[in-house]
């Protein structure tokens, strides 16, 4: 095995690295006003190329 390849056992964390989280960050949400929701819907239509035809 080449010298640059670690012989550390697979599945074991390296002591120099912090422990990794097993889950992602908590999700957040906000309530949109009717006007904001309509504006977002229009933006999505524009970006998707849907002209409402």
Q: How would you portray this structure in words?
A:
The structure is a single chain. With 53 residues, the chain is mainly alpha-helical. The chain is built from 1 helix and no strands. It has one helix at residues 34-48. It is elongated, with a radius of gyration of 24 Å. It starts with 33 loop residues before the first helix and ends in a 5-residue tail after the last helix. The mean pLDDT is 79. Residues 1-38 are annotated as: Disordered. Residues 19-33 have a biased composition (Polar residues). This is DUF397 domain-containing protein. It comes from Streptomyces koelreuteriae.
Task: Characterize this entry briefly.
Helices cover 28% and strands 0% of the residues. It has one helix and no strands. The model has no long low-confidence stretch (mean pLDDT 79).
Topology:
Layout: H1 34-48
| Distance between the amino and carboxyl termini | 63 Å
Q: What sort of overall outline do the alpha carbons produce when their principal axes are compared?
A: elongated
Mean pLDDT: 79
Biggest sheet features: none
Secondary-structure content class: mainly alpha
Number of helices: 1
Helix content: 25-40%
By DSSP, the count of extended strands is 0
Classify the beta-strand content into a percent band: under 5%
Order of helices and strands: H
- Radius of gyration equals 24 Å
